[in-house]
Amino acid sequence: MLILKQTNLEILPTGYILIDGGKETAVQKVSNTKPIAQNNIDLILNTSLAGEFTGKKLIYLEAGSGATVPVGANIIKKCESQLNIPLIVGGGIQTKKQLETAFNAGADIVVIGTAFEKDISFFNQLKK
Questions:
Q1: Per-residue DSSP letter, 19
Q2: How far is residue 77's CA from residue 105's CA, in Å, rounded to a whole number?
Q3: Residues with Cβ < 8 Å from 108, sequence gap 6 or more?
Q4: Residue 21: which of 96, 98, 81 has the closest Cα?
Q5: Which tens digit of pLDDT belongs to each residue from 59-101?
Q6: Phi/psi of residue 104, each to 5°?
Q7: Structural domains in the chain plus CATH codes
Q8: Between helices 41-53 and 73-82, what is the axis angle to 10°?
Q9: Which of 5, 28, 61, 70 could bridge across to 92 with cysteines, CB 3.0–4.6 Å?
Q10: Are 94 and 114 in contact (CB under 8 A)?
Q11: pTM for this structure?
Q12: Rounded to 10 degrees, what is the CA torsion of 71, 21, 15, 4?
C-alpha cells in the first residue's frame, strides 16, 4: 500500500456490491461472499445508498466475471435515480445490446471484461 501513497494516482473509494449473475463467480469464491439476488432491488438500492452516505465516490454493481445474467436494467435505473455519485455496472455483459441496455438504464461506466474474455474483437462490433 505504501506504493500507492507515493504515486500521483487519485484513490477513489468505491462501494462494490455483488449482484447474483446466475452462477458462482470467482469473486464469490475468493471473497467468500454471497451476492444479492436481483429481485431484491430494495436491498441493492439501500446498500448503494449506504455506500454513498458513508463517503464512497463510486458505486459498482457487479454480477461477476463470466456471469450468465448481467445486472438488470430495472436495478440500474432504480439505483441511478437515487444516487448522486457515478454508477459502474459490470459482469456478464457479452453483447453490444447488453452494453447499450446498461448505458440506457443509467450506468455511467460499463465494464465489459466478459465480452473480451469470449471475443477479443468485441470492440469492432461497437464501431458500427
A1: B
A2: 5
A3: 86, 87, 88
A4: 98
A5: 999 999 889 999 999 999 999 999 999 999 999 898 889 999 9
A6: -65, -25
A7: 13-126 (3.20.20.390)
A8: 30
A9: 70
A10: yes
A11: 0.90
A12: -120
What is the 3-state secondary structure of the chain? CHHHHCCCCCCCCEEEEEECCCCCCHHHHHHCCCCECCCCHHHHHHHHHHHHHCCCCEEEEECCCCCCCCCCHHHHHHHHHHCCCCEEEECCCCCHHHHHHHHHHCCCEEECHHHHHHCCCHHHHHCC
Q: What is the Rg, in whole angstroms, of the alpha carbon atoms belonging to the chain?
A: 15
pLDDT tens profile 28-54: 889 999 999 999 999 999 999 999 999
State the Cα–Cα distance between residues 108 and 114, nearest whole angstrom: 18
Grid cell 458500427 is found at 128
* Neighbour-count burial of 24, counting CB atoms closer than 10 A to its CB (0-12 exposed, 13-18 middle, 19+ buried): middle
Cell of 51: 455506500
